[in-house]
Specification:
Elements (H helix, E strand, L loop, with lengths): L2 H15 L6 H7 L1 H10 L9 H7 L2 H4 L17 H10 L13 H19 L3 H21 L1 H4 L5 H14 L6 H12 L24 H4 L4 H4 L3
Length: 227
């Protein structure tokens, strides 16, 4: 058995059983051989089972069914650089993807690295949360410049921070963490009034030839942004 055969087996099993949701216990119960392979071979940088790698490889409609078991007690905050150093080191040459991703592959790498930090942050590691928030802030800043429905968040740094902290705390699905943050800001921002007035004749960004008015007509972040 290898990783590809595990993924195929789980996809077929999920298609046949059609559960409303599934988690590691469901896999252990219905596919013990797959579970044993995953537990032995698919590990993350901090030594745990890398369930994100498994679920990310499944068919998209099955990814959305992933519902890991929630801890009954909140994580106790701590600071441990040893937990995040392996993650940062493994992506050292790719950290530019948080600032200027060059295409779909860079955005995929960005999401994988972000989710790894999310999982460590959810364990209670404050350093992981701080590092992730610093890296994600580059993308959020670009969104505020480029998209009309997100520009209303400009000047509300504390509120953005609160929204991002909530995303890190609540994130469970193994899909794009950045899309999750984007949707959160989009929906939460519908009742937010802009702090600053601006002209729709202004360029979208400092180096852009496109005016903001051109993005307003039929503007929908969901349709315009391709992550």
């Amino acid at each position: 058995m290898d990783f590809d055969s595990v993924v195929r087996t789980l996809d077929k099993l999920l298609l046949r059983k059609h559960p409303e949701s599934f988690n590691s216990s469901w896999i252990l119960r219905h596919a013990p051989r797959c579970y044993r392979f995953i537990a032995a071979k698919i590990r993350n940088e901090v030594g745990g089972i890398d369930w994100d790698k498994v679920t990310r490889a499944l068919d998209w409609k099955h990814q959305r069914l992933w519902a890991p078991e929630r801890k009954l007690t909140p994580a106790i905050p701590y600071r441990d650089i040893a937990e995040i150093a392996p993650i940062l080191n493994s992506y050292q040459e790719k950290l530019y993807v948080f600032i200027a991703p060059r295409g779909a592959e860079d955005r995929r790498v960005r999401d994988i690295a972000a989710v790894k930090l999310v999982r460590v942050a959810q364990r209670g590691n404050l350093l992981a949360k701080e590092e992730l928030m610093k890296l994600v802030a580059y993308t959020i800043e670009e969104w505020l410049d480029c998209y009309h429905y997100l520009s209303r968040w400009r000047g509300r740094d504390d509120e953005i921070r609160n929204q991002l902290e909530g995303c890190i705390r609540r994130y469970r699905y193994s899909g794009s963490f950045f899309i999750y943050v984007l949707r959160t800001l989009e929906y939460a921002g519908r009742g937010v009034r802009p702090l600053y007035a601006y002209s729709l004749d202004e360029p979208v960004t400092a180096n852009s030839q496109t005016r903001k008015i051109e993005n307003v007509a039929g503007d929908s972040v969901s349709n315009e942004l391709r992550l």
